[in-house]
Design brief:
- By secondary structure, the chain is α/β, with parallel strands linked by helices.
- Helix content is 22%, strand content 27%.
- It contains nine helices and 18 strands.
- The strands form three sheets. Strands 1, 2, 3, 4, 5, 6, 7, 8 and 10 form a nine-stranded mixed beta sheet that branches. It has a seven-stranded antiparallel beta sheet with strand order 9-11-12-17-14-15-16. The protein has a two-stranded antiparallel sheet with strand order 13-18.
- A hairpin with a 4-residue loop joins strand 14 and strand 15.
- The longest helix is centred in the N-terminal third of the chain and has 14 residues.
Length: 361
Amino acid sequence: MAVSNVPTTLFTGFFGVGKTTAIRHLLSRKDPDERWAVLVNEFGEVPVDGAALEPDEAETGGVVIREIAGGCMCCTMNLPMKVAITDVLRRARPERLIIEPTGIGHPAGILDELRGDDLRDAVDVGAVICLVDPRVVQDPRLREAALFRDQVHLADVLVANKADLAAAADLKAFDAWARELFPPKAVIETTSQGVLDPALLDLAGDAARAPLFPHLHDHGHDHGPDHGHDHGHDHGHDHGHDRSSPDSPDTGALSPGKPIRRRNAGEGFDACGWIFDAQDVFRRDDLVDLLGPPGPVKGLQRLKGVFRTPDEWLLIDRVRNEMTVTPIAYRRDSRVEVIAETGNMDWTGLEGALLELIGTG
């Protein structure tokens, strides 16, 4: 039987605004008897968001996570997105679908595909939810950026996340700016730690919203010499129902102390990621010191990694000069992705520094 009218929500927002955290919060609150699917597109070649979304077994089940790494699924060459959506609907048969594009992903291409002839009967597209950091909304460089303007313009719901880190003046300025937007938003919210009302997933979207810059998503990405194929990496959490394979094509070559490296570039950013064998154990304090600010990577925009340390597995999440370190349920391997402004990045030097922190478990 064909899947039809699956409630579908698109989350947008620039690097580090908290999209993955918000989705994880929603997953933790879902009915354990419901089956959800999450489709994540990451700019870098080493997917980490799927690991960050993986819930503890005690939290919830019935979740299938599908990752598309290495670029932007909203581009006009978006066959991977169409194939991934079709495949996850067919295999997981979810009762709800959540899509999280990369931080530099333009939502127009995704919405066009979701509402196009091939998928319109399979999915029921609800409100588009855009998260922003209220501390940087007033930055003229951001306000004038075409991508940011279209992410905001196409959203039905606009959320100022990280309110706990913002000054009162920033929140007041965000509210004034948001309420002047036209067409007006269906919902304007302020929150912290990605805590969203699950009822937002059931709001209807406005299909009449059109991009201000319709050709902005007509672009491509360049893959570095370390490029490999890690597309379509599945994580299944489903109470035993047709569990998706957790193995990706590139992990078979892993061995202790010999990570796999993947690179990607585009839109003024360079990305480099590594996957380490599960037996590699990192010295916790030295790892935090290495990856924390100021750190060895110039112009760093985003760093997200899952690491095995002697006592626990950790998620290290850094946005520019802010970093959080939290325990994580993921156990398959250690992996990290670093995104920085285009420049002369010493990725080999960073890899060597990481290797120096490894013991054997």
